[in-house]
Amino acid sequence: MEPLNWGVFDLDYAQEVERIAKRLREVTAHTLHKRGLVVAISGGVDSAVCAALAVQALGPERVFTLILPERDSADASAVKARALAAHLGVRAETFDIAPALAAIGCYEARDEAVRRVLPEYEEDWRMKIAIAGGAEGRINHFRLIAQSPEGAMHEKALGLNEYLQIVAATSFKQRLRKTLEYYHADRLNYAVVGTPNRLEYDQGFFVKNGDGSADVKPIAHLYKTQVYGMARHLGLPESVATAAPTTDTYSLAQGQDEFYFALPWASMDLALWALEHDLPAADLARVLDMAPKAAQAVYDDIANKRRSTRYLHMAPVLLTEETTDTRA
């Protein structure tokens, strides 16, 4: 095998687009018996590529897109999503989910947990949570980062109970969005498209019965690097094709690596590829210019996340007398 390098992600994009579009047509019509596809578009590259592939497969008239902002969404996200819908020529409906989230206690439950850590926190503050530890070979832990209206920054260690409550509350967002996706899918007799890339899917970076729920996932086999390449090949708007991946879940700007992954997305792609191809950590260390011990810590973090998020991929467990059946 050749030495590890960034060329491992090279792909014949024209051929891959044709292959995915063909499979999407087959799955939609013959496996799922549906007339079209619903895609929630966030302004990010993953959902944009999925929407574009759906159009390649079925044509714009059989693709329905949803733009689902809420109180903490960046204004630019909806702007980019609308530009994408116009570019693709697809129907798009915008629905602000903030009132529904407030009604079910999403923001209240989150803020109550935050105040147990930072009593002075108020509704007009901004906040996020950040991960640390895994890249250094230690147990992952989370910290709360908050900013007052005057700009003062506060950082506190998050206890387990507070962390779990904040994540549980914010997961309402993904689950409510999915509820709306399936409402429109049922109304139109369409299938729902899931938008995770390979890194997110492998590492369990999704909410069960939220953004992890879908009828078909067109890019779950593609590394994030390849998704960006696909966006360029498909000629998507520059604002989308070059958009940095964010969670768009907390009121403070937050990158995915800050919230979940041990390294920035491009480096994580290479680490996952190297691990899946049984390359020693020293090879990854050479390319990423890091110590072999640090590269091994990244490998270990990938393995730990696979173990801890395995249940996210599981169908409900049926407790039959004969066997434990995990089929849906």
Can you put this structure into words, describing what you see?
By secondary structure, the chain is of the alpha/beta class. The chain has a domain at 6-102 and 169-251: HUPs (Rossmann fold, 3-Layer(aba) Sandwich). Helices cover 48% and strands 12% of the residues. The protein is built from 14 helices and nine strands. It has helices at residues 13-31, 45-58, 75-88, 98-103, 106-117, 160-188, 198-203, 224-233, 238-241, 256-259, 265-276, 281-288, 292-308, 310-313; strands at residues 37-40, 63-67, 91-94, 126-132, 141-147, 153-157, 191-192, 318-319, 324-325. Strands 3-2-1-7 form a four-stranded parallel β-sheet, with helices on both faces. Strands 4-5-6 form a three-stranded antiparallel β-sheet. A two-stranded antiparallel sheet has the order 8-9. Strand 1, helix 2 (45-58) and strand 2 (63-67) form a beta-alpha-beta unit. Helix 11 packs antiparallel against helix 12 and helix 11 (265-276) packs across helix 13. The longest helix has 29 residues, at 160-188. The mean pLDDT is 93.
State Rg.
20 Å
* Uncertain spans: none
Query: Can you write the helix and strand succession as a string?
Result: HEHEHEHHEEEHEHHHHHHHHEE
What distance lies between the first and last C-alpha atoms, to the nearest angstrom?
39 Å
CATH H-tier superfamily of the domain at 6-102 and 169-251: HUPs
Q: In percent, how much strand structure appears in the residues?
A: 5-15%
The strand count comes to: 9
Strands ordered across the widest β-sheet: 3-2-1-7
Query: Helical residue percent?
Result: 40-55%
What is the second-level CATH architecture of the domain at 6-102 and 169-251?
3-Layer(aba) Sandwich
Alpha-beta classification = alpha/beta
Shape: globular
Average pLDDT number? 93
Give the helix tally. Answer: 14
Largest beta-sheet details: 4 strands, parallel
What would CATH call the class of the domain at 6-102 and 169-251? Alpha Beta
The CATH topology label of the domain at 6-102 and 169-251 is Rossmann fold
